[in-house]
Amino acid sequence: MSAGTTNAELVAVAVAAARAAAPELLERFDRGAVGVSSKSTATDLVSEADLAAERTIRELLARERPEDAIMGEEGEDTPGTSGLRWIVDPLDGTINYLYGHPQWCVSVACEDRAGVVFDPVRDELWAVAVGERPTLNGEPLADLGPAPELGAALLATGFGYAAEIRAAQAQIAVRMLPRVRDLRRAGAAALDLAWAAAGRLDAYYEHGVKPWDIAAGTLLCEGVGLHVEPLPATDALPPGILTAPPELAGELRALVDDA
Questions:
Q1: Interval 18-23 mean pLDDT
Q2: Is CATH 3.40.190.80 the classification given to domain 150-257?
Q3: φ and ψ at 213, to 5 degrees?
Q4: How do strand 240-244 and strand 227-231 relate by DSSP bridges?
Q5: CA dihedral defined by 152, 122, 33, 42, rounded to 10 degrees?
Q6: Rounded distance, CA 96 to CA 103, Å?
Q7: Pairing of strands 69-72, 85-92
Q8: Please, which contacts does 87-90 make with residues 24 or more away whose CB atoms are closer than 8 Å?
Q9: Using one digit for the tens of pLDDT, what is the confidence trace for 176-229?
Q10: What residues does CATH 3.30.540.10 cover in the chain?
Q11: 30-44, 125-139, 216-230: lowest mean pLDDT where?
């Protein structure tokens, strides 16, 4: 089934999947999520909404792309035979969602081919087919323009769930804050990446992200010409990701890496 499938066709499937999950999420967001349990730590939560949204996405992908593999945050990996794999985060920003903060999204990507980040609260949908310009609600994203000086750059980051990882991440933030315009921690990695692609942030870095957090967002960033590179694991931190204008990437990487 993958033979002859274009990236644009894969985007259309990703859009349909992300939009199909939105009613499940919005309805529960309005009335308050239930069925909450913890995963890796007491602060790493999953709700009925996460699970219902992923079921909806998986059902659509099984109908539309039955030969493709699927990796989802909340379910078992599903093998495929087509050579294509979908990477799904049904609700990125679960803690925000549970507290009623409107900073959460759905992320659906066909690995290395196409991706969608959908913010149902604002009805903003970012989409990218590799080789084409990313879009926001169907309109091509604008050129980002010249990179700012480091001291004028607005950065975003995130923090892990385990206390020892947060402690190490806090040390990076201490180095960053005196050197940049400011630092944002919104709590949804996929949206941070989409906002960077849209020029709402200048750069983003975070250790501890998972494939489903970044699969669609990194394609968006690469599509507008941002530099994207993996951050290797250290003794104190798991692997991560950095995206920034090429002119700033080296300086930011040095601040992240400085022991």
A1: 96
A2: yes
A3: -70, -30
A4: antiparallel
A5: -20
A6: 6
A7: parallel
A8: 87/111, 87/211, 87/212, 87/215, 87/216, 88/17, 88/54, 88/57, 88/58, 88/61, 88/212, 89/190, 89/212, 89/213, 90/21, 90/25, 90/50, 90/51, 90/53, 90/54, 90/56, 90/57
A9: 999 999 999 999 999 999 999 999 999 999 999 999 999 999 999 999 999 999
A10: 7-140
A11: 30-44
> Phi-psi region for residue 126, left (φ > 0), alpha (ψ -120 to 50) or beta?
beta
What confidence category does residue 50 fall into, taking pLDDT thresholds of 50, 70 and 90?
A: confident
- Check whether 34 has a pLDDT greater than 60: no
Q: Global pTM?
A: 0.92
CA 255 to chain centroid, in Å, comes to: 22
Residue 256 phi, psi dihedral angles, 5° rounding: -65, -40
CATH 3.40.190.80 domain position(s) in the chain: 150-257
| pLDDT at residue 241, as a whole number | 98
d(CA 86, CA 248): 31
Q: How many CB atoms lie within 10 A of CB 247?
A: 13
208 DSSP assignment: S
Residues 144 and 226: beta-carbon distance below 8 Å: yes
